[in-house]
Amino acid sequence: MINQHYLDMLSNKSVIRELSEYATARGKEIGYENVFDFSLGNPSVPTPEAFTLDSVRLLNEMEPVALHGYSPSLGIPEVKQDVADSLNRRFGMDYKAGHIFPAAGAAGAIAHALRAVTVPGDEVLVFAPFFPEYVPYINDTGARIKVVPARFEDFQINFEKAEEMLTENVAAVLINTPNNPSGVVYSDETLKQLADLLERKSAQYGHNIFLISDEPYREIAFDGKTVPYTAHYYPHTLTCYSFSKSLSIPGERIGYIAVNPACEHADDLVAMFGQISRGIGHNCPSALIMRAMADTVDLTSDLSVYETNMNLLYDKFKSLGFTVQRPGGTFYIFPKALEEDAVAFCKKALKYDLILVPADGFGAPGYFRIAYCIDTEKVERSLPVFERFVNEEYR
After folding, report:
1. What count of Cα atoms within 13 Å lies in the side-chain half-sphere of residue 69?
2. CA-CA distance, 149 to 86, in Å (whole number)?
């Protein structure tokens, strides 16, 4: 007998993937350059040349058996040390190699973090709007997701509801900053208030509530600002990171978990992640990619195009009368639809070959997400199309 749970999931596919597939099919009909595909958050800037050259160097110079052999189950020690040193330099932390666990991107990192700090029946709190895949990430561990409603005026945390929903059954809180889909960066004030709430509730319930911080967009920040480092604010923090966006290598599936040295069981958690790998079939990412990533750990692609694209779209949406929060980072913008039903709004946009993602699955009905990780030239060509869409359908 097959597993009915996963069979049922086939009828509940990712709307993002479905729209991306539609855009690809539509592109075959009219030319993909004529489809304004804002569906999928796939980085659109080149990987740094240094990463490519270092990969080639490793292939040419390193002894093949050593390069391509099994790596240690907890990660290559010198790679872990390079990551720890980078975080310490940049954020004033005190990580050691033993606090770092390489993983298959942020998704793999979250999969390990959730299993380490929850047991079936526990609850995990997330804040709307949130990445829809958090639902299977959490629920398929046996824990249960609880969604705190959005604070729509600025998409910071809705603390009034969070206080109410953070019960003794909550084992962990999962946050995402900069945020997919809103593009909002949690402020210093927000993170301090969250840390205070978790400290108070942990003391009240007699057990530490872990904070899992999902940070794959940390390097994409706008207006010359930097993103506050969550682990600074709360000791029991597991930081989940991916190089998919910073180095534009999403297909290489490389990231890590960084365990705050002040965290409960800090000396045990990475070893626990290794044991979790045995149960979920994850046994280290590619040794080659781990080494190349470590050698370029402080570099990024040229990410400036995302801010250029954001400004173009933000200014256009404001001029067209949309309610929209200015993003502080990521490559997403999150306007409110011009009618109550964002699904209907996005279906109307398809007539104009505008591929937009309704935000019902993000916990924010009435909004839609745009992933503007596309060429600026295409963003510029989309602007009069948005204007025509709005004028013909809503005026």
Report:
1. 7
2. 35
Q: Label residue 47 left, alpha or beta by phi (over 0 means left) and psi (-120 to 50 means alpha).
A: beta
SS3 391: helix
Q: Are 241 and 106 in contact (CB under 8 A)?
A: yes
Supply 30's token pair. 């009219």
DSSP 8-state assignment for residue 7: H
Task: Return d(Cα 134, Cα 82) in angstroms, integer.
Answer: 29
- Record the tokens describing residue 4, joined without a space: 């009915």
Write the burial class of residue 352 (CB in 10 Å: 0-12 exposed, 13-18 middle, 19+ buried): middle
Q: Over 80: is that where the pLDDT of 13 sits?
A: no
Q: How many whole angstroms separate alpha carbon 88 and alpha carbon 11? A: 45
How far apart are the C-alpha atoms of 140 and 336, rounded to whole Å?
31
Report, as an integer, the average pLDDT of 106-127.
97
Are the C-beta atoms of residues 272 and 292 closer than 8 Å to each other?
no
3-state SS class at 358: strand
Q: Which residues lie closer than 8 Å to 5 by C-beta, 6 or more apart?
A: none
Cα within 13 Å of Cα(199), Cβ side: 9
Instruction: Quote the pLDDT of residue 19.
Output: 86
Q: Terminus-to-terminus CA distance in the chain, angstroms? A: 55
Contact between 235 and 260 under an 8 Å Cβ cutoff? The reply is yes
Please give the pLDDT value at position 4: 86
CB 181 within 8 A of CB 334: yes
22 band by pLDDT with thresholds 50, 70 and 90: confident
- Long-range contact pairs involving 5-10 (C-beta distance under 8 Å, separation at least 24): 9/136
Give the distance from CA 323 to its chain's centroid. 24
Predicted TM-score (pTM) of this structure: 0.95
Biggest CA pair distance of the chain: 66
Strands 210-214 and 170-176: parallel
d(CA 256, CA 217): 14
Collapsed DSSP state (helix, strand, coil) of residue 354? strand
Helix, strand or coil for residue 116? helix
Which tokens sit at 368?
A: 């839609």
All domains in the chain, ordered by first residue: 4-47+302-394 (3.90.1150.10), 49-295 (3.40.640.10)
Query: What is the spatial distance between Cα 127 and Cα 165, in angstroms, rounded to a whole number?
Result: 11
